[in-house]
Amino acid sequence: MTMSDPWSVFFLTLAGVTLCRLSGYALGRWLPRSPEVTKALDTLPACALAAVLAPQLAALEPLGMAATVLAIGLLLMRVGLLASFTFGCLVLLSPVILQAVREG
């Protein structure tokens, strides 16, 4: 079994995430319940998401970056998930749509 095997990667990731969650539950009992600690712990999911997404966003082409910025902006304005996804996809597909309109 090598690391290039998708199932190996899946189960190693599953084990790592499970270990992290269980250690968080075990160690969380000894953390103080101050507002500062609560605020710091509330930001952890967003930090983890940013750590995963940032390298992908840096590798995007300008059109992909525009679509991502538009979708995130709409989500932050609380427009809704479906509208954000739809407008982001429209920006990504705009070259194809424009070409079809011109030919059509």
Automatic annotation (TrEMBL):
Pfam families: AzlD. It comes from the Bacteria. Keywords: Membrane, Transmembrane, Transmembrane helix. The chain crosses the membrane at residues 52-76, 81-101. This is AzlD domain-containing protein. It comes from Tistrella arctica. The lineage of its organism: Bacteria, Pseudomonadati, Pseudomonadota, Alphaproteobacteria, Geminicoccales.
